[in-house]
Amino acid sequence: IDFNAKLYDYLAVRIQAALEDNPYIRNAYMDIGRRETFKLRIGQMKVPFSTQWLALDNRVDFIERGSDTPVYPFFDRGLLVWGTVAKGTTTYSLGVFNGNGVDVEGTKGDIDDHKDAAARLFVQPFRNSQSRGLKGLYLVGQGTYALTSAPTRRFETRGLMAANYESLLWRWRTEQVIGSNVRNTDQIAGEIDSRTRLGAEANYILGPFSASGEWAETEYEGIAVYHDFWVG
């Protein structure tokens, strides 16, 4: 279910629900702003990183996207400032997010005061050129930075899934109960200082022809694993 509405010239609303498996709200945001150069988005939305991730499901080139979380982000609640400047050649996005994802993934809510920051620059340098062959070049630079405390199911303990969604390439073995004798529990837990994503893209479109390439990297700092060894 996807509901979109535009009120007057400066207010747009989108509410979208995913009803398969474990139902949850995907998009639930409000865009405020009359000018194309500056708009404010508040609510739950896609974190601005990667054209592959930001594309609609029916607009990706292949049956699946290039990667998955944690290399890509997910839906999150926050505040985003975005707009198109430089005679329509550059679109910028700057946002601050909770870092928890959607409710179905983070049932405990926002457990700390750490936030995620995201920045993205989408440039069509030859948009106003007279050359048809140059107009279709798009360049993208982007990144996210998060101060985080506990591994999350969406980004860490779930792992990186293969494209067929049936196998895990890797996952963290933290946040697990190893054993219990009713009175005591053997628990593995982890802490993280920060998570950084960096990405760059080049896309080219000329009539029915298109070519694209993407580089993305996710780096963690300060990983600590704790084991309360009681039983097992």
Brief synopsis:
The chain is mainly beta. It is built from three helices and 15 strands.
Descriptive labels:
232 residues; mainly beta; ten-stranded antiparallel β-sheet; three-stranded antiparallel β-sheet; 3 helices
Task: Describe what this molecule looks like in 3D.
With 232 residues, the chain is mainly β. The protein has 3 helices and 15 strands. The chain has helices spanning 51-54, 132-135, 153-157, and strands at residues 2-7, 11-18, 24-32, 39-46, 75-85, 90-97, 116-123, 137-147, 160-161, 168-170, 176-180, 185-191, 194-206, 209-221, 224-228. The strands form 3 sheets. It has a 10-stranded antiparallel beta sheet with strand order 1-2-3-4-5-6-7-8-13-14. A 3-stranded antiparallel beta sheet has the order 11-12-15, with no helix packed on it. A hairpin with a 4-residue loop joins β11 and β12. The longest helix is centred in the C-terminal third of the chain and has 5 residues, at 153-157. It is globular and about 75 Å long. The protein starts with a strand and ends with a strand. The mean pLDDT is 89.
Radius of gyration: 20 Å
Distance between the termini: 47 Å
The protein's oligomeric status is: single chain
H and E order: EEEEHEEEHEHEEEEEEE
Tell me roughly what share of residues is in helical segments.
Answer: under 10%
Name the shape in a single word. globular
Strand order of the largest sheet: 1-2-3-4-5-6-7-8-13-14
Low-confidence sequence ranges: none
List the helices and strands and how they pair.
Blueprint (H helix, E strand, L loop, with lengths): L1 E6 L3 E8 L5 E9 L6 E8 L4 H4 L20 E11 L4 E8 L18 E8 L8 H4 L1 E11 L5 H5 L2 E2 L6 E3 L5 E5 L4 E7 L2 E13 L2 E13 L2 E5 L4
Antiparallel strand pairs: 1-2, 2-3, 3-4, 4-5, 5-6, 6-7, 7-8, 8-13, 9-10, 11-12, 12-15, 13-14
